[in-house]
Design goal:
With 347 residues, the chain is mainly β. The protein folds into 3 domains: 101 residues, Immunoglobulin-like (Sandwich); 92 residues, Immunoglobulins (Immunoglobulin-like), CATH 2.60.40.10; 94 residues, Immunoglobulin-like, CATH 2.60.40. Helix content is 13%, strand content 52%.
């Protein structure tokens, strides 16, 4: 019984293989001739007008496989963007642009596929007279901490890619490009910037069609607010009224972070004497204490670092020699005694 079932399955598999082989042979008999792309109205139109793209082909076939004809409509000289794809039994297919935009200007072509055969039309140029849409720029976030990032997004939802996007920054009202021009097969693009102390605070963008000589108007200018991550930075040295050998020297470095910072990451604080690190910690405050000696005289720095942003305060510490203080006291006492001895009192 098992042997009989196996024989039946092998017979069915053989028939399926023969059908696939026959189908392939029939497809080899398909010839695609004279694939053409045409526009209505022909070659030129106005913004807002209705345009019909027609792809036609002359098919010679020895089978009924022509009931499955695939049409692919492309925009761009190198078939950059697939506009539409349809399947039909007719030897022509159409795509309608209901309201043409200036960015519809460009080169178009179509590809016809039947089975494993394909043929492409020549590239045809369409010109749509009119202005490009003024794009819209958005920035996130608008309030940003120095050392963080912002994302610029430029979009022109009514225009058809491929499009060229250009971002601009403004300094004293004068625009200059941000980064390189970006060409994309979408109608929006984003650009990320690291915010530093030198980062400009006003931006806009504009677009250009790949096949157009003119550009759109610039978008509105959008500004950002850049805040220092440290809302307060203090550096104190005690005693404040002169330091002598034997005194307790206390150096305190303190910061307070901006209210915009939601991260729990603490800043790194450092106390340095010259270039020598005296103390370091991830905290909002650090202290360095010791018994003062004349060797502690020098320049000290309080450095705060957060997310690659740093701020520094410097102060000079002078520790007086204790013997100098004793000598000065003796000189003062002697001077006072001599002045008292030389004073003549009247009778």
């Amino acid at each position: 019984m098992l042997r009989a079932i196996t024989m039946v399955l092998m017979l069915l598999l053989s028939k399926v293989c023969k059908l696939d082989s026959l189908k392939a042979d029939l497809q080899q008999g398909v010839t695609l001739n004279n694939v053409q792309m045409k526009f209505a109205p022909e070659t030129s139109a106005e913004v807002g007008s209705r345009i019909t793209l027609t792809c036609s082909v002359n098919i010679v076939a020895a089978s009924s496989l022509t009931s499955q004809i695939s049409y692919l409509f492309y925009k761009g000289p190198g078939s950059d963007v697939l506009l539409n794809s349809t399947v039909s039994s007719e030897q022509r297919s159409q795509v309608t642009i209901e309201s043409a935009r200036a960015s519809h200007t460009g080169y178009y072509s179509c590809v016809v596929k039947v089975g494993n055969k394909a043929a492409k039309s020549e590239v045809s140029h369409l010109d749509v007279a009119g202005k490009l849409q003024t794009p819209r720029i958005t920035i996130h976030p608008l309030k940003v901490i120095m050392g963080s990032q912002i994302e610029l997004r430029c979009e022109a939802v009514e225009e058809v890619p491929p499009l060229e996007f250009i971002f601009y920054k403004y300094k004293k009202g004068q625009p200059s490009p941000v980064g390189d021009k970006t060409v994309t097969s979408r109608n929006s693009v984003t650009h990320t910037l690291k915010v530093t102390e030198a980062t400009d605070q006003a931006y806009s963008c504009k677009i250009k069609g790949r096949s157009l000589e003119t550009s759109s108007n610039c978008s509105e200018i959008v500004g950002i607010t850049v805040q220092d991550p440290f809302s307060r930075h203090a550096f104190t040295i005690e005693p404040k009224n002169g330091i002598h050998e034997g005194d307790k020297l206390t150096i305190t470095c303190t910061v307070r972070m901006s209210s915009l910072i939601t991260s729990q990451m603490k800043p790194q604080l450092m106390i340095l004497k010259g270039v020598t690190l005296m103390k370091r910690n991830y905290s909002l405050e650090i202290k360095y204490s010791k018994v003062a000696s004349s060797k502690d005289t020098g320049n000290y720095s309080c450095i705060a670092m957060w997310n690659q942003t740093s701020k520094s305060i410097q102060k000079q510490v002078i520790v007086a020699d204790s013997t100098q203080g004793t000598v000065a006291s003796i000189k003062t006492l002697v001077t006072a005694l001599l002045l008292g001895a030389c004073t003549i009192h009247p009778d």
